[in-house]
Amino acid sequence: MLSNLSRCSNPLLSVVTRNGKVCEEVRRLSTIHSTAKVKLKGAKLSNRCIICLSGTETPQLLQGLLTNSVNHLEENAQHRVNLPCIYTMALNAQGRVLYDLFLYKLKNSEFLLDCDQSVHLNLIQHLKMYRLRKKVNISSKNQWFVWTVFNADGVSVSSTSKDSKVVDEHGLPLGGSEPPVTSAPNMCTTDNLIISVADPRLAVLGHRLVLNAGCSVTDVFPDARLSEDTEYTKLRYKLGVGEGVKDHPPGNCFPLECNLEYLHGISFHKGCYVGQELTARTYYTGVVRKRLMPVKIDADVDRSKAPIDCIVENEQGKNVGKFRNNEERYGLALLRVEESLKSKELRVKGTDIKFIANKPYWWPQTLSKQA
User: Fold this and answer.
1) Three-class SS of residue 257?
2) What separation in angstroms does the CA of 224 have from each of 13, 21, 147, 216?
3) What confidence tens digit (pLDDT) does each residue in 94-138 have?
4) DSSP class of 248
5) Please, which residues bridge with residue 227 across strands?
6) Read out DSSP for 266-291?
7) Which segments of the chain are extended strands (E)?
8) Is 117 helix (H, G, I), strand (E, B) or coil?
9) pLDDT digits (tens, 9 = 90+) for 353-367
10) For residues 326 and 304, what is the distance between their CA atoms, to the nearest angstrom?
């Protein structure tokens, strides 16, 4: 059972306490979704887990390890934004991706890291290695679970506009990129908290939630229908958004190849952090030839046998990248953008698996750093 209702003024972040009631803002948001006849689905992300960091020097530790700026979470008039959550990555010294993360600030100097379950012990070790003598406590929160709620039709959960949009064959919008969240009121917390924030990457990805054990996404979004996390994975792959070590193998890709700058996951003004030098140099003076892209597999092949991290060839047999992962007909591949978009058909080397690559709607119309 959930405890007494706490009022929350933030429409992007909500707290549910022990008597099963939801705060006024969550109820209002759920009513809007119901009125708009949005088909919400909710899924528990079993491959994600929560790490808690607390202590007065936690912001300094995270600021030196993450690609995004922790200052975006601070309640400080000197900073232009105040977000409830940021998307970010931790890199190694060579500038390659180790972990993709969501960072939430609770109260004072207490933070939550939403990370891939399979590498959470490695991440804790990574944090402790750089902690040195900083006053930071690091612990796993095994009683908290990550959920997501999203629109089954691929439309922004937060959108209430009835304006028509040009959409592709999957019902996903085409055109310009989604704007990031620019501001948010203060966060509300209780001892038995539930966090619900708009996904900081793309509005179409819905809301991300951290719930106590025994709670469900339907406690926050009553109209949501529970589904498997594969439905959410399929939506991400349609959009071309990677998540976790299967899509971002540790040490095997660079943050800009993962479209981190397009997903609001990196700050080029924050100063030094581990892996910053190569990342900044590539952004300002280099060329990003390869990027993680959405692919659609041919309907006539056995998609269950699609190999992971295998070479992809174009019609001329030229190596244009690597196949990452798939869910049914939709997948991700790290591809040379120019060659892949010009190709009518791509193939996983040594197999009969054929597919086409698409440029996501949320990419800029012109890729200024493209070769």
Assistant:
1) helix
2) 17, 16, 12, 10
3) 999 999 999 999 877 789 999 999 999 999 999 999 999 999 999
4) S
5) none
6) --SSS---TTHHHHHHHHHHS---EE
7) 40-44, 48-54, 85-91, 97-105, 110-116, 137-140, 144-151, 195-198, 207-212, 225-226, 290-297, 310-313, 319-327, 330-336, 346-348, 354-357
8) helix
9) 999 999 999 999 876
10) 9
Residue type, 224: A
The CA distance from 165 to 148, in Å, is: 24
E strand or H helix at 28: helix 24-35
All residues at 6 or more sequence positions from 332 whose CB lies less than 8 Å from its CB, including other chains: 237, 240, 242, 247, 292, 293, 294, 295, 324, 325, 326
Tokens of 143: 């009683």
What is the enclosing helix (H) or strand (E) of 238?
Answer: helix 229-239
Contact 163, 208 (CB under 8 A): no
Rounded-to-integer distance, Cα 311 and Cα 15, Å? 46
The 10s digit of each residue's pLDDT in 28-54 is 444 444 444 568 899 999 999 999 999
What does the alpha-carbon distance between residue 2 and residue 191 come to, in Å, rounded to a whole number?
11
* Amino acid (one-letter) located at 82: N
Beta pairing, strands 319-327 & 97-105: unpaired
Which distant-in-sequence residues (6+ apart) come within 8 Å of 361 by Cβ?
A: 168, 172, 173, 174, 175, 176, 177
DSSP string, 67-83: SS-GGGGS--TTSS---
DSSP annotation of 66 reads B
Distance CA 304, CA 329 (A): 10
CB 235 within 8 A of CB 199: no
List pLDDT tens digits, range 65-103: 999 999 998 765 455 556 789 999 999 999 999 999 999
Whole-number Å distance between alpha carbons of 41 and 295: 23
Between strands 354-357 and 346-348, the pairing is antiparallel
Contact indicator for 364, 317 with CB cutoff of 8 Å: no
**Quick one: which of 22, 34, 37, 44 has its CA closest to 226?**
44
pTM, entire model = 0.82
